[in-house]
Amino acid sequence: MTPYTWRKSSYSGASNGDCVEIADGLTGALPVRDSKDPNGPALTFAPDAWSAFVTALKANAFPTP
User: Fold this and answer.
1) How many domains does the chain fold into?
2) How far is CA 48 from each of CA 13, 23, 29, 31, rounded to the nearest angstrom?
3) What is the pLDDT of residues 2-48, one digit of tens each?
4) CA separation for the pair 54, 20 (Å, rounded)
5) pLDDT for residue 14
């Protein structure tokens, strides 16, 4: 996943180090990785699946620990 340009998500936490990066420019795929581990694994989502996930997050649809 290194040949792609990664950007930090606007929803990442600046103060606590919880940072998610997304690679733009791929057709039909949205790679997501932990910015603290740029050489680690990346999860790849279909754009509609990522959109549904972000919508659910904004709606507080997931329980918090």
Assistant:
1) 1
2) 24, 15, 9, 13
3) 578 888 877 666 666 678 899 988 889 999 999 888 889 999 999 99
4) 13
5) 62
The residue whose two tokens read 């990066």 is: 21
Given a contact cutoff of 8 angstroms between Cβ atoms, the answer to whether 61 and 44 are in contact is: no
> Is residue 40 one of the residues assigned to a domain?
yes
Provide the pLDDT for residue 26: 85
What's the CA angle centered on 32, arms 8 and 23, to 5 degrees? 65
Question: For the whole model, what pTM was predicted?
Answer: 0.72
- Within a domain: 51: yes
Residue 24, domain extent: 6-58
